[in-house]
Design a protein that fits this description.
Protein name: Isochorismate synthase
Number of strands: 39
Keywords: Magnesium, Manganese, Metal-binding, Thiamine pyrophosphate, Transferase
Oligomer: single chain
Helix content: 25-40%
Shape: globular
Largest sheet: 9 strands, mixed
GO molecular function, one term: 2-succinyl-5-enolpyruvyl-6-hydroxy-3-cyclohexene-1-carboxylic-acid synthase activity
Number of helices: 41
Pfam family, one: TPP_enzyme_N
């Protein structure tokens, strides 16, 4: 049983905070070992004695390892909490964000212990952000979808039971306000007091659950959780009576749980036999015909008749919907319509509905259908609830009833509908929205909803603000009028009072609420439309058709193979569908004649995601970026001739970086080759050795078994995704006709495809990556190479892990686990991806992560010899830093005065995929006897000294420069957002991210689409100009996650000024041939493509420009103009300062006055704090802070420590600074001072590492 949406999306069910350090509502706790989890919270009494516990276990590389650690944690929880009569324990494990919550749920078996099943997705809203809305969404920043399987505790309402205060209190008794991820998921019927119809009876009037197993997409990782809940009967819900039963249920669920489903996008294969509307069209006209005349209209709507459409379009192209909203607000003056703020007699709006019953033959997988709908409309919420009987509810809605974080609340008004314009046609889409904004009937309907919500919020909130008076919310195929409201909840109010105040809104019921509610109570309604004065039956019926178009499109009958009009379309359709079944359903298509059969076949596939572009070069890089984000190949389709050659740069990059890519090039048949025909080149193995595999597919013929196409496609995908991953080229020959024109062919070639055509699985199944030898357990004594490596690792006293380019999150977690097990510091390259959120990602707090090794190594003399490791373990691919590579080579070469370092290079894959038990080899044999605390302290001190010096020096630079851009971006990037760095200076100035080589805008656009989250790309002006056609992909990809292009314009190729040849040639010659200065109006280029653009030339404007761009929630460009002159000198001055700071810190360790020079003895020493004091300061600034407008003073605290170095005849005095920046840090100076004063009372008598790197330490002999 399936239903279209009729639930409002309760924020109690979908508040999804991520593990971000910036979220004040989140406490991130880490147990030392999975065998000994500890309870971190205990609040809220339920029944007799209920304890709510939230335990975060160490990060794991895979779901399998995460579930193993949970089994052990359940045993501990059962023993420790057996004396509690009631309680709730949430065990969670961070894992790489490799599989989505939906694919995880699709992979779970249909077992009773894993039901009910539930799923909520976020909404990629097109509406610009607002301050109050951001506060209400603070606990959800960076979070994605959540899926649950099985219920640890279940609340299901009987007919007539409502979601009221008693239910909320019973749910809250299991929860802990300080643990926002421990929450109930669910929803309620539109009218909970009405008896449900037969098809809805199983669900009850409401259903909420604490998921037994849950996968949540968080910022930077996913969280797998297992919840145990128990208590005596007597509440409104049901569940185990004691912890032993709860633990048994949890173990059973973990045993039944499976891995995520394999990537696949099969069509929804059902045969729709009939469809009926209730009411039908005739009944609809009769029912609705007289209604509009009976409805009252209290105010005439503002038509905005004075707005020039051309001016409005120009404002929209320049500044997006945000700019257009501001323009309309100015031109409309103070004519805010307050109709509806006071409830008057007489109905002004009634929301009618139409139920559609669809009958079909075949098996319908609701999760597959939901995945298909999600692909089509990522800007809507997707909701799914399935009971053990198989009864299923799923819905799609653009509306959010409310969102809440703490006392901050946000709601929104959504009303009136228009279709979207054709994909890529910005002007047609704009004028449809502009008509919606100016239409009097739609304006009246919209203000009725907005003002009613404002009035409802005023009853339960202290302050209510309409932050966005009137805007447009754009979905995939429709767009609505939209308003955003923010409020502060009254102290006595909670979720129950909010629900009672807001549900149902006029958008789902009508006005006045009770009159409309009473009129609808006799029937259960679906996809409602609002009727106001001026509505017509034809318009409202058409609106209903718009809303269900996506759903009906997925249930369209598939074309039978034997009915294909010609053999070309048959082969092309086989190829396209097999790719979709293999999960490769993103098709990047460049227009052309010879490739018409391929393009037509892809367009017929209901699950195909099509990315069109006129430039094959940009298209290839878009596919490359998409594959970097997803790990699976996007498919590029081109015509014949030089169109194929344009893909060569992307193919080379894919080969060099190990990124999967699938090229489908159309070609002429053999008889037309080498005939001098137009647009014909030799395409056979055109990419040479850069392609992992090539196949010249013969021209379609009914004399060749059609299954040949399927096996070829399966081999191509396997070769692209098996190690080593890379590009694969299929050259597809086609004869005329290239159109779907009928041409006879013999269906005998379909023999052997009967099961394939009836099913949804690929023709052949990939059994896994090919390997020359079976993977052996990594146990001592079984492999000579492993024994030798293990001996080297065990014998090392000053080890170092270095990490180059990694392929995915699992490799990153494995690298951090290896460093933790060894007890070695881990130096991470820019390309590793570990610098993004290095302090809060999964497993990061288990290792000492060095992000400034490149700066530590600035001075070779006097530094390198003191930090030379005796063993280096290199993980991952190549490095961006030449200095680190030089240091490793220098370390490995033996010299008369020192031995060479052992340098081990290991593919990280065996560690990430090693058999159970093998990961503990290093831990068992090395961790107990290896003490690397001294080396860790030294490297941590040097790394922090370098980082602090960079921060201090950049703060002292008043004029905007390229390093400021990198620092500001790193500090302000929203949690969960992606970062993509271009080549040249951005990748060298940044401390995080992934770099592109060519086609940077196009690659970043594909990366954002594949990641499914907003992305910021930092790029230079020459790279920007080199990929201008990438802006066309942004224009046509309006529905993709927003890409913010941070364009650093220094007037040319500034990076070449760092080359030695820059000082060897006359400036004119060097500039003309190397730096290639440009003077292009980049803002006009953006405007021509309809991309909003901002100009920044002052440091204090940079932060606000970035926040404004991110708040637009659409593609935009922030152009930062920096001077090219002096850039080299600034970098060199900064490097000199950092090198001096590293020397000071190193000298502090090596040769303090009156102390032995032995690093071993000194680093082992501790300082006993004998006294601590602090002194506030206030200093005037030459320029205002960039993080806070108008702030011209810097406030902070100086901390002074006095101490005695244990076992040494010396004392130490250190002075450090704590200066939080307003607008950047969450703590104020006053809060910092209070914390430090408490610290001054607690420190005396304690022992701390004597060489605190952030203190300017002075040592003297007693």
């Amino acid at each position: 049983m399936l239903g279209l949406p009729n639930l409002s999306r309760y924020s109690t069910a979908v508040s999804l905070p991520g593990p971000s350090a910036s979220s004040s509502a989140l406490s991130w706790h880490q147990c030392k070992r999975p065998q000994r989890p500890r309870a971190v919270r205990s609040t809220l009494q339920r029944h007799t004695s209920c304890t709510a516990n939230w335990v975060t276990l160490p990060a794991q590389v895979s779901l399998t390892q995460a579930m193993q650690s949970m089994h052990e944690a359940i045993d501990v929880a059962e023993n420790r909490l057996s004396h509690h009569a009631a309680g709730c324990v949430r065990l969670e494990v961070p894992i790489p964000r490799d599989a989505s919550a939906l694919t995880w749920l699709q992979g779970q078996p249909q077992d009773t212990c894993l039901h009910p099943r539930i799923y909520f997705s976020p909404r990629a809203s097109s509406a610009p952000s607002t301050p109050g809305g951001d506060r209400a969404e603070a606990s959800m920043v960076g979070s994605g979808a959540v899926a649950g399987a099985g219920s640890a505790w279940l609340w299901q309402g009987q007919p007539g039971q409502a979601v009221d205060e008693a239910l909320m209190q019973d749910i809250q008794s299991f929860l802990d306000p300080s643990s926002p991820r421990l929450r109930a998921l669910g929803g309620g019927r539109f009218d909970q007091r009405q008896s449900p119809s037969r098809e809805w009876a199983e669900f009850g009037s409401y259903i909420f659950m604490l998921p037994r197993l849950e996968l949540m997409e968080a910022a930077g990782c996913s969280l797998l959780s297992c919840t145990l809940a128990w208590g005596p009967p007597g509440g409104l819900g049901s569940g185990p009576s004691d912890i032993h039963a709860a633990a048994g249920d949890a173990r059973a669920a973990l045993r039944c749980a499976a891995l995520p489903a394999a990537a696949a996008a099969p069509a929804v294969k059902v045969e729709r036999t009939s469809q009926e509307h209730v009411p039908d069209r005739e009944q609809w006209d009769q029912q609705m015909g007289p209604l509009p005349a009976t409805l009252k209209q209290t105010n005439e709507a503002s038509e905005l008749s004075n707005v020039d459409p051309a001016m409005a379009l120009d404002e929209y192209n320049s500044n997006g919907q945000d700019g257009l909203d501001d323009l309309l607000a100015i031109l409309d003056g103070d004519n805010q319509d307050d109709s509806g703020m006071v409830e008057e007699a007489g109905m002004s709006k009634l929301v009618l509905a139409r139920q559609t019953n669809v009958h079909f033959n075949g098996s319908l997988d609701p999760l597959n259908l939901l995945a298909a709908l999600q692909e089509r409309d990522p800007r809507s919420y997707q909701l799914f609830i399935q009971l053990s009987s198989g009864a299923t509810f799923f819905g799609i809605t653009p509306e959010n009833l409310y969102t809440k974080s703490g006392r901050s609340v946000a709601s929104e008004a959504v009303a009136a509908t228009r279709p979207r314009g054709p994909p890529g046609d910005v002007e047609a889409d704009f004028f449809l929205a502009f008509d919606l904004l100016r239409n009097p009937k739609d304006h009246f309907e919209f203000t009725q909803v907005r003002n009613w919500i404002k009035r409802a919020l005023m009853g339960v909130c202290d302050v209510v603000t309409v932050e966005r008076e009137k805007s447009v919310l754009k979905q995939s195929t429709v767009q609505h009028l939209y308003a955003r409201l923010a409020a502060t909840l009254k102290p006595a109010a909670n979720d129950a009072t909010l629900l009672a105040a807001l549900h149902p809104t006029p958008a789902t019921c009508g006005r006045p609420q009770q009159d409309a509610f009473q009129a609808l109570r006799d029937t259960e309604r679906f996809d409602r439309v609002g009727i106001v004065k001026g509505s017509t039956p034809e318009e409202e019926w058409g609106e209903l058709e718009l809303k269900v178009r996506q759903f009906q499109g997925q249930l369209r009958p598939s074309l039978q193979l034997a009915a294909m009009p010609n053999i070309n379309l048959l082969w092309a359709s086989l190829l396209a569908e097999e790719l979709c079944r293999l999960g490769c359903n993103t098709f990047c298509i460049a227009p052309g004649s010879r490739s018409s059969p391929l393009t037509a076949a892809v367009a017929m596939q209901p699950r195909s995601v099509i990315v069109p572009c006129i430039d094959e070069r940009s298209l290839g890089f878009w596919a490359l970026g998409h594959a970097k984000a997803t790990g699976k190949p996007a498919v590029v389709i081109t015509s014949s001739g030089t169109a194929v050659a344009n893909l060569f740069p992307a193919v080379i990059e894919a080969a060099q970086s190990g990124t999967p890519l699938l090229i489908l090039s159309a070609d002429r048949p053999p008889e037309l080759r080498d005939t001098g025909a137009n647009q014909t080149i030799d395409q056979i193995k055109i990419f040479g050795g850069y392609a992992r595999w090539f196949s010249d597919i013969p021209a379609p013929s009914d004399s060749i078994p059609a299954r040949t196409v399927l096996t070829t496609v399966d081999s191509a995908v396997r070769m692209a995704t098996a190690g080593p991953m890379g590009p694969v080229h299929l050259n597809c020959q086609f004869r005329e006709p290239l159109t779907p024109a009928p041409s006879p062919w013999q269906p005998a070639c379909l023999q052997g495809l009967e099961r394939w055509e009836a099913g949804n699985h690929p023709f052949t199944i990939n059994a896994g990556p090919l390997t020359s030898q079976p993977l052996q357990p990594l146990e001592p004594g079984l492999n000579a190479h492993w024994d030798s490596a293990l001996h080297t690792l065990k014998a090392a006293k000053r080890g170092l892990v270095v990490v180059g380019e990694l392929q995915d999150g699992a490799e990153g977690v494995a690298a951090l686990q290896i460093a933790r097990c060894l007890g070695w510091p881990i130096a991470v390259d820019v390309l590793s991806g570990l610098r993004v959120g290095a302090s809060s990602g999964p497993g990061a707090n288990e290792a000492v992560v060095l992000t400034s090794l490149d700066h530590i190594l600035l001075e070779k003399q006097g530094v390198w010899e003191h930090i030379q490791p005796d063993a280096v373990l290199q993980l991952g691919g190549h490095f961006t830093s030449k200095r680190i590579l030089s240091f490793l080579e220098w370390s490995a070469l033996p010299q008369p005065a020192r031995p060479g370092s052992a340098w081990l290079f290991a593919s990280i894959r065996p560690y990430a995929c090693s058999p159970p038990g093998s990961g503990g080899v290093i831990e068992r044999q090395g961790r107990q006897s290896w003490g690397h605390i001294r080396v860790l302290e030294l490297m941590r001190a040097l790394d922090e000294a370098a980082g602090e010096e960079i921060h201090t020096r950049l703060e002292s630079m008043a004029a905007l420069n390229e390093m400021h851009v990198a620092k500001t971006l790193a500090a302000l990037l929203p949690p969960g957002d992606g970062l993509f760095l271009g080549n040249s200076m951005p990748v060298r100035d940044m401390d995080m991210g992934a770099s592109g080589i060519d086609g940077v805008i196009s690659s970043a656009a594909g990366f954002a689409a594949g990641l499914g989250r907003p992305v910021t790309v930092a790029i230079g002006d020459v790279s920007f100009l080199h990929d201008i056609n990438g802006l066309n992909l942004l224009r046509t990809g309006e529905a993709d996650p927003p890409l913010t292009v941070l364009l650093i314009n220094n007037g040319g190729g500034s990076i070449f000024s760092f080359l030695p040849i820059a000082d060897s040639l006359p400036p004119d010659t060097f500039n003309r041939l190397w730096t290639t200065p440009q003077n292009v109006d980049l803002s006009s280029i953006c405007r021509a493509h309809g991309i909003p653009h901002q100009n920044v030339s002052q440091l204090e404007d940079l932060g606000q420009a970035l926040r404004s761009a991110w708040g637009l929630r659409r593609h935009s460009v922030v152009e930062v103009k920096t001077p090219k002159e002096g850039n080299v000198d600034l970098h060199r001055q900064l490097q000199a300062s950092v090198a001096a700071a590293v020397r000071r810190t190193l000298n502090c360790f090596l040769t303090p006055a009156g102390l032995p020079g032995s690093l071993r003895s000194l680093a082992a020493s501790q300082m006993e704090v004998t006294g601590a004091s602090l002194q506030p300061f206030c200093l005037p600034l030459q320029r205002p802070l960039t993080t806070e407008q108008g702030e011209s003073y810097r406030h902070g605290i100086l901390l002074r420590l006095h101490g005695r170095i244990e076992d040494q005849e010396a004392s130490a005095i250190g002075i450090g600074e704590a200066s939080p920046l307003p607008g950047l840090h969450t703590e104020t100076v006053e809060e910092t001072e209070m914390q430090l004063r408490l610290l001054c009372q607690l420190l005396p008598g304690l022992s701390v590492p004597w060489a605190l790197p952030l203190l300017q330490v002075t040592l003297f002999t007693l």
